[in-house]
């Protein structure tokens, strides 16, 4: 929990004074007010602010290079405010807005969008592969997971670079797990959901993430196959993959290799998918040992690790 009211860096253009007055009226402290394309926003860290509140114009800013750069490189979490939406005027709506800011700021306080503090490396790593319809399915899956599972997740979602940060925010709102983008040198630890970058390739080395330029011939960005192959090589039977809703065949090669090394492969069932092509293609290989809705997949994973703990206890105390 934050030890003080959230400190907001405000990136705005048309209604800066109005936004500043509004934030102050609901107990939020603006510590900086600048234009949304100001490079200083890239340099801010937890010493000076807790989050960036960015006012954008959907029609003109959505494709701006500075927005993509900010979403990729900013050290602080970003909360977006549509410049065309009126600011909340009713008390209940204002309280919800303040609560949302506090929630995003608290996530930044706990994670700092930097590497987690050193701790025990994850023994179990599961890849969540998704494309069209994936965000809804993955959120439903994570929403039903307990926070205590001894697993690190890597989410590989086919998505544009500018949507990574909003995706992190959406997922963080439904799970107590620590959700963050992949960072060079990050140690994979239990309780994490790491979102794979679009323009960088993840390589796992001694339980840590290394980020390299994406090969030009990579058919998908990010590549589900590539990340699953990394988990297969590094974790073998302690690795897993779940293929969610999507189009194409990304994940097939990786899942075949993971299964060959003793890992676990599951898939979302066709009935609950927005588009079932991607999990269907993996099912056709014969390596999928369980299919179900996101809720059923979450229940099965929870049960799997309860059984794993039980087996370990029996081994220790026969």
Commentary on this structure:
The protein has 318 residues and is α/β, with parallel strands linked by helices. It has two domains: 7-111, Rossmann fold (3-Layer(aba) Sandwich); 125-316, Rossmann fold. The chain is 37% helix and 21% strand. It is built from eleven helices and 13 strands. The strands form three sheets. It has a seven-stranded parallel beta sheet, sandwiched between helices. Strand 9 and strand 10 (208-213) form a beta hairpin. It is elongated, with a radius of gyration of 21 Å. Residues 110-118 and 310-318 have low confidence and may be disordered.
Features:
2 domains; alpha/beta; Rossmann fold; single chain; 4-stranded parallel β-sheet; 318 residues; 13 strands; 37% helix; 7-stranded parallel β-sheet; 11 helices; elongated
Layout of strands and helices, then pairs:
Blueprint: E1 7-11, H1 16-25, E2 29-34, H2 40-43, E3 51-56, H3 58-61, H4 65-73, E4 78-82, H5 91-111, E5 125-130, H6 134-143, E6 152-157, H7 164-172, E7 178-181, E8 192-195, E9 200-205, E10 208-213, H8 224-235, E11 239-243, H9 252-260, E12 264-268, H10 277-283, E13 290-292, H11 294-316
Parallel strand pairs: 1-2, 1-3, 3-4, 5-6, 5-11, 6-8, 7-8, 11-12, 12-13
Antiparallel strand pairs: 9-10
């Amino acid at each position: 929990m934050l030890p003080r009211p959230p400190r907001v860096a405000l990136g705005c253009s048309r209604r800066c004074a109005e936004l500043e007055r509004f934030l102050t009226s609901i107990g939020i402290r603006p510590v900086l007010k600048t234009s949304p394309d100001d490079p200083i926003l890239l340099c801010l860290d937890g010493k000076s602010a807790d989050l960036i509140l960015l006012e954008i114009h959907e029609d003109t800013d959505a494709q701006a290079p500075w927005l993509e750069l900010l979403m990729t490189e900013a050290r602080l979490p970003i909360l977006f405010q549509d410049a065309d939406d009126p600011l909340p005027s009713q008390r209940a709506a204002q309280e919800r807005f303040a609560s949302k800011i506090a929630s995003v700021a608290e996530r930044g306080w706990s994670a700092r969008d930097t590497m987690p503090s050193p701790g025990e490396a994850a023994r179990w790593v599961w890849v969540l592969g998704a494309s069209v319809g994936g965000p809804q399915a993955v959120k439903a899956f994570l929403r039903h997971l307990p926070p205590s599972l001894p697993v690190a997740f890597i989410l590989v979602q086919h998505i544009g670079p500018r949507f990574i940060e909003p995706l992190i925010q959406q997922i963080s709102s439904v799970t107590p797990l620590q959700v963050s983008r992949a960072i060079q040198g990050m140690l994979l630890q239990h309780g994490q959901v790491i979102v794979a970058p679009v323009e960088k390739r993840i390589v796992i080395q001694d339980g840590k993430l290394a980020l390299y330029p994406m090969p030009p011939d990579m058919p998908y960005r990010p590549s589900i196959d590539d990340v699953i192959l990394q988990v297969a090589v590094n974790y073998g039977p302690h690795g897993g993959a779940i293929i969610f809703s999507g189009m194409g065949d990304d994940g097939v090669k990786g899942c075949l290799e993971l299964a060959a090394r003793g890992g676990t492969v599951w898939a979302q069932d066709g009935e609950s998918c927005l588009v079932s092509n991607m999990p269907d293609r993996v099912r056709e290989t014969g390596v999928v040992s369980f299919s179900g809705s996101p809720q059923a997949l979450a229940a099965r994973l929870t049960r799997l690790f309860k059984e794993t703990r039980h087996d370990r206890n029996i081994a220790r105390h026969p």
